[in-house]
Structures are given as structure tokens and as C-alpha cells.
Amino acid sequence: MAERNNPTHQQQQQRPSRANRTVVPSSTFLQKIQSHAPNTTHFLGFLLLFFVSAVTLLIPTGLTLTATVFGLVCFMPVIVVSSPVWGMHPPGSDRVDSARTRIYDTASHVKDYAMEYGGYLQSKVKDAAPGA
């Protein structure tokens, strides 16, 4: 009974020790996360669902891209060959037309110059011939 009435003994029983009171916040956070984490069966179910949905979306995407490329490869020659009928010009045709026009203009200028210069010489030759 002497121990019961001892005030120091009562204070020790009421107050918990410091080692029991200190809790690391990160360990409680990890415990909460681990308690809510799915088990292996749920994880495998989610993984299977992910792969099935990925395959379900990737197969139509791949088929669409393949069909697009195949269609372009097959129909591009038809489009290029028949584009003049539609009134469309393939890319670069304007540059070819302008180069053709420049060549024609240059050739006509050279021809005109040659006719002028040749005519000038012929007139000089005619003038020189009667007086010689």
C-alpha cells in the first residue's frame, strides 16, 4: 500500500514514456498507403485490363495507318497522271513552265538580234559590192 500512496509512482503510471509517444509521420503514411494497396489478384486484373484496352485501341490505329499508306501508294500515280484533266498542276510545274518561258524568250531575242545584226551586215556588203 505504501506504493499506492507514493506520489512519484502514480505520476509514472499516468504518464506514458516518450518512446511510446513518438511516432514517425512517414511510417504512418506508408502504413495507410499499404493498407489501401490492391492485392496481387487486383493488380493482375488491372494489368490485364490495361493490356486488353491498349490492344483494342492499337489494332484499329495500326490498321488505319496501314490502309492510309497503302491507299496513297496505290492511288498517287493515278492522281498525278490524271491531275491535268482536273486542271490541277503537280508541285513544281510552275517552275518548269517559267523556265520554259525564259528559254523561249531568250531564244526569240537571240533570233531577233541575229536577224538585225545579219541584216546590218548584208546591207554593208551590198553597199560595198557596187562601189568596189
From TrEMBL:
Bilayer disposition of the protein: Multi-pass membrane protein
Keywords of this entry: Lipid droplet, Membrane, Transmembrane, Transmembrane helix
TM region positions: 41-59, 65-86
Subcellular location: Lipid droplet; Membrane
Matches recorded under InterPro entries: Oleosin
Tagged with keyword Membrane: yes
Example of a GO cellular component annotation carried by this entry: monolayer-surrounded lipid storage body
Residue numbers spanned by region Disordered: 1-21
Pfam families, per the entry: Oleosin (PF01277)
Main location: other
UniProt GO BP: post-embryonic development; reproductive structure development
Family in the record: Belongs to the oleosin family.
Name this protein carries in UniProt: Oleosin
Organism from which the protein derives: Gossypium davidsonii
Lineage: Eukaryota, Viridiplantae, Streptophyta, Embryophyta, Tracheophyta
